[in-house]
Amino acid sequence: MFKPLPVGIEFFEKLIKNDYYYVDKTPLIKELIDNHGEVNLFTRPRRFGKTLTLDMLRCFFEEGRDPAMFQGLKILEAGEKYTSMMGKYPVIFLTLKSAKTGDEKRAFSALRNEIAREFDRHSDVLKSGLLDEKEAEKFERFKGWMAEPEEYAESIKFLCQCLKKASGKNTIILIDEYDVPLESSFYDGYYDHMVSFIRSLFENTLKTNECLEFAVITGCLRISKESIFTGLNNLSINSIRSSDYGEYFGFTDEEVYAMLEYYGLADKYEEVRDWYNGYIFGGKNVYNPWSTIEYVRQHKNNHDRFPESYWANTSSNSIVKDLVERADGVTKGEIERLIAGGSIEKPIHEDITYGEIYKDQDNLWNFMYFTGYLKSIGERYEEVKKTSYATLTIPNAEVEYIYSQKIINWFDNEIVKKSDRSALFTAMLSGDAKGFETEINKLLKLSISYFDNKEAFYNGFMSGLFVGAQDFAVRSNREAGDGRSDLLVLPVSVFDRAFVIEIKAVKPKNGQRTVTAEDMDIAADEALKQITDLHYTEALMDEGYGTIGRYGISFFRKDCRVHYLEGYPEDKT
After folding, report:
1. Is the pLDDT assigned to residue 567 strictly greater than 70?
2. For the chain, what is the domain count?
3. pTM above 0.85, yes or no
4. Residues in CB range of 36: below 8 A, 6 or more apart
5. 269-276 and 289-299 are packed helices; what angle lies between their axes, rounded to 10 degrees?
6. Strands 487-491 vs 498-505: parallel, antiparallel or unpaired
């Protein structure tokens, strides 16, 4: 009987006590202790285990926790220097992701609620009898949501002071998803207010707090010190470019193989590596842990299931969408190069603010790099500009899916929305193959393409051209006759002409780099022949359509040829 997989489990105690499969990341504890960082910031992409890792730290260091949770884990092999610190400290754990509300009032309410929850969790302090009357009254106000708004900036520092009085020990502070309130406020219009609050909270909690043992903060993006970390000289920043802690967020190659072997999927190793590997953190090569676990969950009882892009659906991808919508010709070409397996070189700026993201297209590329949509395969430093440049590529097949499906669809939908397609529809409906070809080519040259001539891309492109059309419906890849037609275009009235469209992607022959016009014409004729030979018109005839037009369209990169045949109902013999 296999152990259950920890899909979405963010609480370490729950994971251990329910015997979920656990990839042991406890050596992080030893490294944190050895490095003596007072305030440690870890930035990693979403769904890379940051919350679970913080909760693991809480379970190790916090007073009153069950030490049996760590039985059999690597940290217990590290020696007494480390195990003697187990269960010895008060711990404050704040998650700021609840502030993603879309509304300023509700966001600040969520933050106050999170702070009140921590005061309530530590309410034994009140029973200690070591707080004076004023301190106890203030504690109760934070616990009961009765503190004044301006008091919250010092709330966590005050809680540390109370814990120090009650226990005699300094406090460990863990802050998860610190940048979520900043991103949310940026999109919802109260960014300056949120920056001001987070800056004040962090300055009081992390800079001038003599009751602090150490702190660990996690998030996706490294926010400029001038924005919220003002004056924090004790801040140790660990981004994906840092040299330490690389293997603790994400799975290593050995960890993935061990998991696949345990669940009887060792033969899937190459597939998993192609799809979910490729991230480089701290010089270590790691897999996306969320997607790897999802893959194993989906395949352990369905061995031959196709891999999927699980990570793509775990957020709105809003800034990536913005990159596409703001893309100029140069950016569009860079996206095409990435999708084709190439690379782009960009200056790296780690210290940015959300307010700066849209000031420069390079800032958006930086955002995509630091949040996992790109990886660096090399860097160089330009002395004159005092700037580092990274060569960036798409990490793996999963992220390539986001580019090739979501990004292309977003881009082409924008083209469609902004384009006058009346000439396109007029040419198609009248059987004007040359006019239809001209209009398709105009739009094709504005689109993002694979440059690998996949028919699926051209099928999606053609389907997108009909988005929002009022006078007819489009069906894609439906069963028809003896096979699947690529597109059926159906007018509202069965007495009007319907159309079958078959698409062919043309590839160069015999190692050539390009194709000829003759090759394109031959492929378009083959598409027409396929419509006839496989009886694709039968589906439309069965629905009562009279006149049926047939389009054979061949594509090579950003060119197409269109051939047309008028087709009338045939005997189904």
Report:
1. no
2. 4
3. no
4. none
5. 140
6. antiparallel
